[in-house]
Fold each of these.
Amino acid sequence: MTQKNNNSLNPVGKSVPRIDGKGLVTGQTKYVFDLKLPGMLIGKMLRSPHPHAKIISIDTSKAEKLPGVKAIITAKDTYGIKFGSNEFFFPQTADQQALESDKVRYIGDELGAVAAIDEETAEKALKLIDVKYEILPAVFDVMEAMKPGAPQIHSARNNIALILPTHFGNVEKALKESDYVREDEFYLPSAAHTCMEPHVCVGQFENFSDKLTLWISTQAPFKIRETLAKCLKMNLNNVRVIKLAVGGGFGGKLEMLPMDFASCLLSKKAGGFPVKITYSREEEFSFSRRKHPMIYKLKSGIKKNGTLMAISGEIYADGGGYCSYGPTVLAAAMMRIFMVYKIKNFKMTGYRVYTNNPISGAIRGFGGVQSGFAVESHMDMLAQGIGMDPVEFRLKNITTPNMITTNKMILTSNGLRECIEKATEACDWKNKKGKQKNIKRGLGIGIAADVMGSKMYKSHESAGSIIKIEEDASVYFLTGAADTGQGSNTALSQIAAQELGISYDRIKITTADTGITPFDTGSFASRVTFISGNATKLAALDAKMQILKVVSQEKNIPIEELDLIAEEVIHKKNSSVVMSFEKAVELCYSFNYGQQIIGRGSYNPKTTPVDFRTGEGNVSASYGFEAQIAKVEVNTETGEVAVLKMWDAHDIGKAINPQSVRGQIEGSLFMGIGYTLSENLQFKNGRVLNPNFANYRLPRSVNACPVESILIETIDPEGPFGAKGMGEAALLPTAAAIANAVYDAIGIRIKDLPITPDKILKALKSKES
Amino acid sequence: MQSKNYWYKSMTTLNINEKEYQLDLKGHETLLEVLRDNLGLTGTKTACNEAECGACTVLVDNNSVLSCIILAKDVEGCSIETIEGLSHEEELHPIQQAFLDNGAVQCGFCAPGFILSTKALLDKNPEPNLEEIKKSLDGHICRCGGYLKIFDAVKDASKKLNNHDTKK
Amino acid sequence: MLLNPFNYHSPKTLKEACNLLDTLKNARILSGGTFLVNNLKSLKRRGLKTPDDIISLQKIPEIKGIQIKSDKIMIGAMTTLNNIAQDKNVEKHYPILRIVSENIASTQIRNMATIGGNVACRYAWTEFASCLIALEATLHFAEKKKLKEISAESFFKNNAKPEGLLTSISIPIKKDIIAIYKRVSKTPGVDLPMLTVCIKVSLKKNTLLDVRVVINDGASFSKRDVSIEKALEGSNLDENIEGKFLSNLNPETYKLDNEYKKELLRIHSKYAIQKLLVQINDNA
C-alpha cells in the first residue's frame, strides 16, 4: 500500500525527498498568492506620502461613491488598539495602530484601506480619498534623532524606544591591564528580505456567523492570530489564521502588518466577502520591513598572549517609525557575543532609536548579522595588533561545552572548536593564510552561534503536535510549525516517523492552521527543528505507547518489553516480531478495543528572556555554532572582490535531513554574500531609493561560488535525536569572513558594508599616499 | 457563416501545453495574466513584474522567456509551455525529479521558472558544463537556496535524460 | 490589469506596418518587448499618459533573420540577441557581435530582445551602438514608400530620429578586422553596463588601419574617441600601442561623475587595448 524503501525506514539522518516537493516542482501547490475565492474583492492600503505628519481629517465620501467600491476603512472603524511584536516584555513598544488615527511616522504609514471589485477601482478610490495633513519636521538620521530638540516621533524621550545597558565585571580595570587596546566603528546598512512571494493575505470576516478567517503568507500564524484578536477584541478561537505554502519569510512575515488587519475589517464592512491584499514588489521594498541599520562601536582590550580582557561598546540601531521586533534585534546584536567568546568584563549599551524611516524589524539573524560583521572584524584586528594568527586567537577565547556564560546562558553541547578546526583544515589555512598577497588572494574567518528559539515574545514559546493514526494505518500529522521553504514539514515528519517506528511514506502533514493545529510560536530564531521537533517526538511517543498498550493487552506482554521499530512491533526480550504496524493498528480499531490513536505532544524549552536591566538571560535551550572561512581574490586596479570559495563548518547537533541542512546553509551564506558585496537598501528623506530588483542587486547563478559545508554532529542532549535548529548562523559571520579575507589579500580594512569596488580603490589610494 | 468567421477572428487562440485555448482578449493582456487569471494556470508566478526575477518564465517555441512582459496576442501561433505541461499524469518529468532528488527546491516559488529554463537548456545542449548552466540560469533569482543545488539538479537531469534516450 | 488598454495591431508585412505607423498618431512600436512593456507598466503606475495603439512587429517575417551576402551581413531588425549570438556565420566574420549579444541582461531577455529594439529605443547605454559604429554598420529604415539609410555613427551622433521603421542593419564584411569589446557591469554579474569600450582595427602588414575606438560612458550615446583614433591610425605593432592609447584617453571628456568611474575608464581601456593586442598576436 505505501511505497517503502530503505530511506523511508528510520529516516532521521537521511536525505529523504521533501514531503511536499512534488506539488512544488509541478506548480500544483497553491500559495496564498494564488488564492481565489468566490466574490473575492481586491484591497489596497491608503498610505501617507509624508514621513511625519499629523492627520487632521480624512474624507472618504467621494471614494465611497465610486462604482465598484465595496468598503472603506480608517482608524474610526477600529478600536484604536496599539500593538507591538515584543510588547509582552516591553509594553512601551506597543506603539503601532493597525490604522493610524493621529499621526503618521514614515512614508507609507497606513491610515486606511479600500476594498473594490478590482485593483483599478481600488486604486482610483484611494486617489479620491482626501486626507488633510499637518506636516511635521522629520528626522532620518539615528544620531540626529537622539539629540534634544529633534522632532518627537512617539512619546519616548530623545526618540529612544529602548536602551539595553549591559555591564559585567570591571571593564575600565580590564582595559588598563590590557597590553593592546583598540577602538573601531562599523556601519551596517539596511537590507531587504526579498522573499520571492510578496506579502499577501485574504481576510474573510463573516461576522454574523462569528467566523473570521485569514489566509496569509506567514511564518507565524499564531502570532498573527494573537495580534489580530487583540486589535479586533475577539477571542482566539474566533480568529482562524491559515498558512498555505509560503514563498519565503526570512523574518519579514513574523508579525501582523496593517494589511492583514485591513483585509479582515474590510471584509466585515463589505458584508463578509473575502478581501485579498497583495503587495507589489515596490511595496515589498518600501512598506514592509527592513533590516535595522546600525552604528556599531567597539573598544576591546587583550593581553599579549591573546586573552580577551574586556569588550565594550555602543550600538545605535535605526528603528524607523515603530518598534516591531526592535528589542529582540537589539538583544541579539549584543548577547550573541557571549555565545562565542568567554568574556568576564563586558560593557555595552544598545539604543533602539525611532526615526521617520520605514520600519526596521526582524530579518534573518536578527541583530546577529550586524554584530557578526562588527565583532568578527574587530577580533581579527585585535589579533593582528599582537601579531597573532586570527584562528589561534579565536581558539584561545571561545566558549566551551557545558559552561555558563557571564550573562547566564547555559551552553551544553558546543562544537565551536571542532568547527574552527575542521574549517581551517579544509581550506589549508596554515599554508595559505597570509601567504598569497602577491596574487591578491586571502583567507578570512568568522565565527557565530545560533539560538534555538528565544523567549522574547510571550511567557512561553512552546510547540505542539498531534499525530493521528487512521484505520488503514496511514498517519495524519498536525503541527503548528510553519514551513516557509526551509523544510520543516519534511524534517518534522522524519522525526515523527523515526520516533513512532514507521515508514516516512505513511505520513501526511497539515501545518500552521490555528483552527486545526496546536500552537507554535513560529518559524524564526532557528527554533523549529529543536522546539517543534521535540513536541513532535513527544506526540509520536504518545501515539506509539497507545498502540503498544493495546498490543500489550492483547498479547499479554508487559508494555516495557515492547517497542515499535521500522514498521514492526518487537518483543525486546528476544528481538522477535510480535506483529506488523498495520496489524497493530487494525487491532486497535478492532471490535474488542475500538481505540483511536491520537498522540499529542507539547514542548516548551526552559529558557529565560533577556532581562533588559542586566543583559542576563538563557534565551535558548541549546546553541548551535559555526565557523566560516572565505577565500577571496581582489583586483587592485578595479577594486572588484571575487569570492572564490567558502567553507562552512556547522555544529547542528544532528542533521535530520543532511541535504536540507546543506541547502539552508548555502542559502543563508549567499544571503550573507549579497549583504556583504552588493545589497544595500538606500534611503533619502525617508524614501526607499531602490525599491526594485533592478537597483537592489541580489547574487545570481553567475555569482555563485563553490561552498564546502562540513556538518559537525555534537548530538545535543536536549534536541530531538540530538538535533539543534539551524538556518541563520550561516549568515552571521559571512561579511566578516570576507572582510577579513580582503585584509589578508591586500591589507585593506573596510568597516562599512557593502564592500564595493569604489571603497577598495579609495582605501588603496589613501594607503599609497 | 460570416458571423462565425468574424467571431473566430476576434478570439485569440493560444496553444499552451499542446492544448488550444480560445480567449476573448482585448490586446493589452500580458501572457502572465492570461495564464494565471484567465486560465487558472497558477504554476507560473509573479514575483517582481519588472522582468528581473525569472519567476514568470515560460517556454515559447522552446525558448525561455518572461511572460510578465509578453503580450498574449503576440504569442498566438506559437507553442507555449508552462510548468503544468511538463509532467504527464502521475509521472514527473526527469528534470522535476532531479530538482527533488538534489534538494534544489525549498520554498518552491522560483522552482517552475528554473525548471523550464533547465528544459530549454537541456533540449539545446544535453551535456552542459557548469559555466553553461550558470549562464543559462542567469535570469533567475533564488533567495532560499543559493543556486548550488540547482546546478546539481541540472547536471543530474542531464544524466537522467541521456540515460532515458540511450535506453530508447 | 498591468497595462492600460490599447488597440493591438499585428501587421503581417512591412508595408502594413508602415501604413499603420503613418496613420496612428499616438502609437508605439513593440519589438521584443523588453523595454516597452515595463515602460508601459511604469507609466500606468504613475498615472501618466499611455499610447492608444501598439504596433507589434512579431509577425513580420521579412524583418527577421540573418543573411550573409558576399560583401555584407544583413541582420533583420527583429532578430533576437540570442539568434545573433548563436549564428555560426556571424561568429565566423565578427565574433564581437556574439560577445556583445551574449552579455546583455539575462538568457530570457536575450531570447526576446531584438537588435532593432536595442538600437531604436534611444537609451544612451544600450550596447549594440558601440560595435555597430565600430564595424561601420548602416541602419536601414522603411520610410513611407522608400528605404532610407543612415550610418550607425550618424544615427547616434546626431540623436537622429528618422520617422521610418528600422528594418535591418547591414555590416560590411571586411578582411583582417580585429574587434574587441569590454563591458563594465554596474555590479558583478548580470546588470546594466556602467561603461563600455569597443575597439576595431584593420590589420595590414602589422599596421593598424581604419581604427575605431567607441566609448560609452553610460550617460550619453556611444561615440568615437577621435583623439585616440588619430594617435593609433597607421601605427605599427612594434610601437607602444597601449601607451599611445592611454596617453590620448581623456576621461574628462566623458560624462563620468566621479573619480572612481574615471579610474575605471582608464583601467578598462587598458584591459581593452591589451586584449586587442593579445587577439592580434593569437591570430598571427
Amino acid sequence: MRKYIYAAFLSLFLFWGCTDWLDVNKDPNSLGELPNSNALIPISEVTIANNLMGWDFGFAGGYWSQYMAQNYNASQFKTLEEYSEFSFNTAYQELTAGALNDLKRIKQIASENEDNGSYLLAEALSIFVWQIITDTWGDIPYFEALRGDEGISSPAFDSGQKIYEDLLSRINGLLAKDFSNAEINPDADFIFAGDVSKWIQFSNSLKLKLMLRLSETPSYNNADVLAFVNSADLLQESAQIPGSIFENKDGKRHPMAEFEAGSAGYLTTNVIASKTLLQYLVDNSDPRLDKIYVAPASGHRGAFQGDFDSDEDSDGNTTLDEKEAYSTMSFPFDMNIPLISLWETEFHQAEVFARAGMHAEAKAHYENGVNASLAAHGVANTITVDGGYAKWVDGSVEEEIKQISMQKWVANAKYQHWESFLERNRTKYPSVNEIDVAADRKSAWVNFPVGDFTISVKGRAKLQGNLPASAIYPNAILTRNTSPTKPSQKDNVGQKVWWNLKAGK
Amino acid sequence: MRKFALLLTCLLLCGVHVVFAQSRSITGTVTDSDDGSSLPGVSVVVKGTTIGTVTDIEGKFTLSVPRDANTLRFSFVGYSPREVDITTLTVVNVALAKSAFDVDEVVVTAMGISRATKAVGYATTTVSGEDISATQAVNPMNAIQGKVAGVQITSAPGPGSTQNVFIRGASSFSNNQPLYIVDGIPLINEQIQTGDALNFQADFGSGLNAVSPDNIADMTILKGAAATALYGSRAANGVILITTKKGRNTEGKMVVSYDGSVGVSRVGRIPKRQSQFGQGWSGTRALDENGNWGAPYDGKDRVWGNVVDNSQLVKPYKFLENRVRDFYDLGLDYKNSVSLSGGDNHTNYFLSFSQNSVDGVIPTDADSYNRYTISTSGSHKTNKIEVSSSINFSNEKTKVVPSGQGASLFRSLWEIAEDISIVDLKNYKDKYYKLDDYFTPYGINPYFALNENGATQNKNKLFGKAEVKYKFLDNLSLMYRFSGDIENSTTEAWVAKYQFSPSSPNYGTNAGSVGSYENTKRTRYEYSHDFLLNFDTDLSSDISLTAFLGANFNERGYDYVSGKITSIDVEGYYNFSNSLTDPVASQYLRKRRLMGVFANVDLSYKDYAFLTITARNDWSSTLPLKNNSFFYPGITGSFVVTDFLKDRSIETGFLSFAKVRAAYGWTGNDADPYQIYPTFEPADAAIPGYPELDDLKFPLNGVNSYEISNQLGNTELKPEITKEIELGLDLRFFNNRLGFDVALYNKTTEGLITTLPVDPSSGYTEQITNLGDVNNKGIEVTAMIIPVKTKDFTWNISYNYSTNVNKVTDLAEGEIMIDGFGNGTIVAVKGKELGLFKVNIPRTVVIDGVEKVIVDGNGNVMPSADMVVTDRSVNEDFAMGLTNSFTWKGLTLSGTLDLHYGGYIYSYTKDYMHWTGSSYESTMNDRNPFIVPNSVVENADGTYSENTTPVTQNTQHSFYGDYGAFEAGLYGVIDRSFLKLRDVSLSYSIPEKVTKKVKVYDVRLSVVVGNVLLWTPSDNTYIDPETTTFGNDLGARFGEFGANPSNQTYLFGLSFKF
C-alpha cells in the first residue's frame, strides 16, 4: 500500500525540481538585446521625418500655413479649418516614446562604446526634436522626461524658456566635442550616409535655428548670432530623408503619398488648394505653381480658407463654389523629407544679416535660399532676376525680414509644413488680412488680399479672429501625468508659446 | 439531469458487484406516479451499502442483494426518493412521485466532484441538458440567457458569433470571461475575428461553439471564489462546468436518440427613422447625395439617380417605411443530431453526430454557419481500475458580413436616402445600379458590398481526454487524466477591387477600391495533466471525511501566421499571387505554462452540517521567475436547519427545507505572457489608424531597424487575487411548492493587472502593472413557485433577480481606458464604477446663476476641448428573469422574460444616422432654423453674450452629424435597458402508450420562438442593446460600431429515442 502512495507522489512531483519548465516567458516575437546602436538609428531618423510631414503636422501645417483648404463635400479635416482643439497626440507620442527614447538609447550605447559619431548623430537629432516639441506644445516635461525606465512615469513640466536654455547649452556642449576619429555606420544613416562632417554642419545649422527662434525675446542678441554665423560651418545641402529610400508599396511611401495611395484617397477627397498660396503663385508667375499644385482641366483655382460649407457662387459664373474644380496637391511616393532644408538655413543666415543691416550678405543668402527651393522643385530661377517678383530689394530690417519670410513660406510648401507654421508664428509673415470672406464672397473673390493670410471662414468665431498658435496638451499627458507641476489644459489652439511675442496675428 | 444522475450512479457503483455467497435476486419496475410511465435510470441501492443498480430503459431492474438486506432505496433526480422494505419481497414495483425541488439532488462542484446540494456552501446553478436543448440554440450559453441569476450573457447577432459572459460583474480590466470545463477538459474559448472593432470586423465565434447543446447532460455555473478556487488561476471569473451525455447501463442494448429542428429567422430591431425629409444636403434635394438632408417629401413622381444613356429613373419622392426591413430575408436554420449509446455493468459508450446549418437574415449565404460535431466517450471498469475517455471533433464553417466602417454592408445600407427602395438596387451589375452609375459617389451599392466583399472561417477543433483511476483500497484511489484541446482555423477576408470608368458620373469623386485579401491561420492548443488522490473515511458514526489531493500541469500555446495583399490585380480572384503590391506577412507565437497543487477536505456531521476546506498553490510562467508562486485558500460551510430539527425529532411544519451557508475563498489570476522583460520590436513609424493607412515599416531601402518597445517591462508583477465572501439561504415551503434561494456576495479583486498607460514624455506609453482594486457586491435571488399542481396540470414559475454594485476601490493613478475609439471610450476611475463613458460634453458657463450653453460662431453647441468622464456607466442596475411553464399531460408551454435595467451603451448606428440625417431627432422644428436655447457666444475678451446665430438648414448637418446636436459626444451614448421575450416554447411529449407500439420512446415535438419581442426605453429606438462589436470581454460592454441587426427565430423541433 505504502509503496503505491510513494509512487503516486513521486510521479506527481516529478517536474518539481524543474523550474526550467516554467521559464518560457521570453517573448519570441521581439528581440531581447541589441549588439550595437546601428539598428536603432534608421527608425529614429525616419520617425522624425515621418512625423514632420505626417498626419498631424503634415496636414495641420498644410492647412494652417494656408497651402491647403478643406474640400467641399468632404469632412476629414474640417476641424483643422475650424481651429478646433488639436493636441497632435500621435506626433507627441511618436516623437517622445518613439524617436527621443530610441535616440537616448543610441547615446547610451554610443557612450559605452566610445562611439562619438553615433553620439553626435543621436544628440543632434534629440536637440532637433526637443525644439519641435517645445515650439509646438510650449511648457512640457523635459529634464525628467524619458526616464520611465528609472521609475519616473510622471516627469515634471518645464518652461519653454528653461528648455531652450538647456538645448542651447547642449548644442554648445556637443559642438565642443572632438569628432576627429568619429564614425557613423553609413548604412544606418539615411540622412548623411555616415558623413560625420555633415552632422557637424547639421549641428551648427540647428544651433542657428535655436538662436534665431528667440529673435523676439528680450535676451536675443543679433550680434552674437551674427558672430556665430560668420564663424560656423553650416549646412551646404538639405539634411533630409532621401526619397530614394521609399518604395511605391503600402507602408513604404512618403507619408503624404501613403495617405493617398490605394483606396485611402485622403488627399483627393479632402485637400484642395488654398487660394492664399495659389493666388500668390499665380499672380506672381512663380514657376513652382505647377510643382506644388495640380491644375484641373479648367485651370488653377484655389478655395477660400475654411469655406467648405459655402453654398454660394463666389465668382459669379453660375457654378456653385462646391461644384467648381479646384487645384489639388499631389505627393510622389519618393519625395525627400527635409529636417533642416538648405533654403531654411540660408534664409536664417539672410535674416541674421538683414537684422545687422548687411544688405549684400542678406541678399546673397536670400538668393541662395530661393535657388535651393527652386532647385528642389527642379525649376529655373525667373523670380529673383530682374522683373521677378522675388527680386531682392534693400530695405528696412522689417522689410527685409518680410521678403525672406514670404519666400520661406513658399519654399516650405510640400516640404516643411510644420516648420512653416512655427516660423510664421515668429515672424508674423505672411500677415493677416481681416477680410470677412463669408460676409461678401463675391467681393472677396475679386478683391482677394493676395500675399496675406485670411482667417478661416469656419474658424473665425472660434479664436475670435485669431490664428492657431500652438497645440493643446495631448490627453495622454494630462490624464496620465500626476506631477504637481502639470499645467491645466489650454483653452484652445490660439495660445502662444513663450517666444511668440511679435505683435500681430 | 436525469442522464447525469444516471452516469453518476454508474460511477458510484463501479466495481461493487462483489458476489455474495448468501444472496438473493430482486426484480421490479419503477414508474412515474403521475402518468405511470416507466422511469429508466433510477438508482436502486441496498440501504447502507454500495450495492445497487439502475433501471433500464423500460424502468426494470434486477439486483442481487445479500440475504440480510432489508431496505431498498430508490432515488432519481427530480423525484422524491423512496425506501421499500424488501425483507419479504422478491418483486418490487415502485411508483416515484415528482418532487418540486430535489433536496437530495447532487451537483457537480470543482474538479468534477459531485456532492449533495445540501452540503454545498455556495451558490451553484445547474441547468439541465433538456432545458438547454429545448431552446434549440446553436450555442449553449444562448440557451440560458435570462435563466441564471448573476450571469449576464450577450452576443453579437450573426450566426456563430461569440458570447460575452459575465458572472457577478466585471472584476478585471481585460479578463472577465469564465473558464469552461467540459467533462474535466478546459476548453479554449478565445474569440476569433478579423478586422477590428471599427473597421470591417468579422466575429467568428469562440471555442464554446464546438459543444453541441444536444450533447449536454447538464451545465453547472460556479460563481464564487470559494467554488472555483480549486481550478486555480484561470477560474477567477467563475466556471461553467459542462457535463456531456454518457452511455449508461442498458444491459447491452443500444439506445438511439434523435434531435432535430428546422426554423426560420427574421430580422429583429430596425432603427426608427424620420419620414419628413428625403435625399439631399443643406435642405435641397440633390440626386447624388448620400444623406437625408434634402427637401420635404411631396409624394410626387420625380427623377432620381444618374442619367444613363440619356435616360433617368422615376419614382415617387416619399418615405419608404419598410425599405430596410425588406432588404433582409428570412433566414433558414436546420439541425440534426443523432446519438448512439449503451452499456452494461462494466462498460459504456456514447457516440453522437450533429449537424447545424444556419443561414442568417442577410440576403445570400454571406451570413451563415455550418457546424458538424462528432463526440465519443466510453468507459470500462474492473475491480481496481476504471478507464474512460472522450474525444470530440468539430468542424465549423462560418461566413460573416463584416460590420463597422470600411467596405461594410452597414455603411452602404445607411448611405441610401430613405426615399430610395433598397431591394430595387439588387442587380448591382446592371445599368443605373452598377457602381459606375450608382446614384451617389459617396457610397457603394449594398448588394455589391454583400456579394463581392466577405469574410469566412473554417475551423477544426479536437478536444478530449483519457483518464485512469486506480483503487488502492475501497476508500483510496488515484486518478490521472490527460486532456487536451487543439483548434486550427483559417480565416479569409476580402474587399473587392472596383474602379470607375473615366466617363462615368462617379469617376473622380469616388476613389474606388484597389481591393485587399487577407488569409490568417491560427493554431491554439492546450493540454493538462491532472492527478487526483481521493480518500474518504468515517471518523465516527456521525462524522465522515472526504479528502483529495491533486496536481495540475497546464500548457497553452498560440501560433498565428497571417498574410495580406493590399491590392488586387484580376478582379474576383483572391490569392497572394494576384496582387500589384507585395504580400505583407506577420506572425505571433505565444506559450504559457502553469502548475498547481491543491487539496480539499470535506467534513460532514450527521448529514446536516458540512464543512469544506480547500487550498491551492499555483506557479505561473507569466510571472517573474523568482516570484511566480501564489496561494489561495477557501472555506465553506453549510447547515441544513430542517435536517437538524428532524434529527432532534422536531417537526418543521410547512417549512420543507432550510439551509444556511457561508463561504470565503480566494482565487488568483496570473498575467498574460511576455510582460516582464523589456524588448526591442521591429521598427515602424506609426500613422494614425484610419482605414487604408499603413504604418511606415522597415526594411526600407534594404535596411532593417528595431526600436525600443513602448511597453516598459515589469519585473515586480504579481498575480491578481480575488477574495470573496458569500452568504446564502435556501428555503423551501409547503412540500417544496415554494422556494427561495438568496445569495449575497462581496468580492474584491486586488492588484488588478493591466496596461497602465503612461505619459509618453516618460519615453514609454504603457506598463503592465498591478494597479488597482475592484469591488463587486451583489444579491442574487432565485424563486420557484408551483401555484397549481394537479394530476394532469402543473404551473411552474421560476424567477431570478440579481443586482451587482461595482466600484473601483483603488487605482494607482489617473484613469484607465478600457475600450472605445476617438469619439468616446469607457474608463476606470478610482472611486467610481468600472466602465464609465468618457466623451466630449457640451461646454457650458454659469452666468448669473443660470447654466448657459456655449456655441461657436455657427450656432453649434461646442464640445469640450477634452473628453470628460461622465457618470454614465456600462453597468446595469439589475436584471430579472421570469420563466413560466405550464404542463398539461404531455403538453408544455413555457416562456422566459428577461429584463435588464440601467446602464448605457454606445451606438454608432445612432451616430451614423445623425450624420446621414435619417434619425428622427434631426427633424426638430421641422428643420427650420432655430437658435440653441439658452446659448451664449464667447467674446474675444472672455465675456459672453447671448447667441443670435441660428442653426440653419445649411448647417443642420454639422449640428447633428459633426457636433452631436445638443449633447456633443453624449448623443451616441444611450440607455441600454431592455425587456426581451427571450423564448416561448410549446412542446408535446407523445404518451409512451402510443409510441411504445412502434418501439420509440421520449417522442417530443416542440415549437420555439426566440427573441420575438424587444422593448427598450424611448431613448433607444435604434438598436438591440445586446449587440456589440468590441470583442468578448469588458470592452464589449462599450457598444456597437455599425453592427448587423439582431434576429428573431421560429423553430420546430422533433426528438425521440429508440
Amino acid sequence: MPGDMPSGTTGISRNYSSIKVISHRPSIRSPFEAGYVQTRSKWTTAKREFAISWKSMTAQSHASLLYFFETTCSGASSFIWHDPTANSGSGVTREVIFLDDSLEFDNVHQDYFSGSIRIREV
Amino acid sequence: MALSLSSAAIVEKNKLTSSGAWIILLKVVFPDLTTIRLARNTEDVVWPSTGGNTYTAFPFEIDDAQEEGSGAHSILNIRVGNVTRTIQTYMEQTGNAGGVGSDVDLYVVHSDHLDLTTAEIHETFVVTSSFADSKWAVFELSARNQVNVIFPQYRFMKNFCRWSFRDYGCGYSGATSYTTCNKTLSDCRLRGNVRYFGGFPGIPEGRTYVDTD
C-alpha cells in the first residue's frame, strides 16, 4: 500500500499557491479530405496530472517534502495524495508518482521556499 | 485467411466518433505453464466480462510485423515493460529458457463489448528468441517451426524411453529421491520403475521401427 504524502500540520497540501490540473485522455483522430474527423478513445480511463506550486512554503514543510521525496518514496514509488481540488471535498485521494527526477525550490525570505512539483496518477 | 469481424465490431468501426477503445490483450504461457495476462490499457480489463480472466494493465508495445520474400516466417517483436524486472523474473525461472518456446496469444477486443467471448482478432505465436534490458523485455514472435515438430509422434527405440521423467507415461512416484533420468533401461531399473519403461528392449539391434498409422 503506498504511503501518504505529508499533509495537514506541515502545510504542504494546504498552503499551496496554485494547482494546475491537466487531464490526459488520448484519442486517435483520422482527418478525412471531406472535412470530417473520425475519432475514438485510445484508453478506457483518463489520467490526471497536477502541477502544485508554492510561493512561501515554510522551512519545516520544505524539509518534510524533501525527506518524503528523497527517502520515503525514493522519487519513484507511488504515494497517496489528498486532492484539495476535488469538488467533493477533502475525502478524495489519488495514487500518484512524482513526474520529475528532481525538485527545485528557491529559498526566499530566509525561512520560506518557493517552487513547484509535478505529480501524475499512476 | 480473410478476417471476420463481429457485427458489433463493424458498427464500432464505422462510427464517426466512439468513446470505446480497442484494447490489445496479451497472454503468455511460459514453458513451465506459468501464465501472465496483460492489457495495453490504463486500467485492468476482465475479458470476457462474465467469468473471464483479468488482464492487468501493463505497458507493452507491438512493433510492425516483418515479412520476407525468401520464404522465412514473418516475425513480430513485442516489447513488455521490464522496469521492475518482473517479466525478466518469469523468463529466468528454471525451465523457461528465457521465454523461448512460450505460447503467446494476442487478442484485440473492444471496451464496450467485453461481454463477447470471441475476440475480434486473435493471433497465436510462439516465442523464437528473447532478451531483456533495464527497460524492456523483448520477445520475437513467429509461427511454430514445423521442422522442429517431432514426426511421427511416436518412435519405437530399443533403449530410449519415450516418456518425460515423472509425466503421465513415466509414472515415477518419487519413492526414491531421483529428479532426472537419462531415459535408458538401466537408469529406469535404478529407479525401480522398469514396468513403465517407454522403450522397446525386444527390438533387434541397429534398427528403428516407425509406426506409420
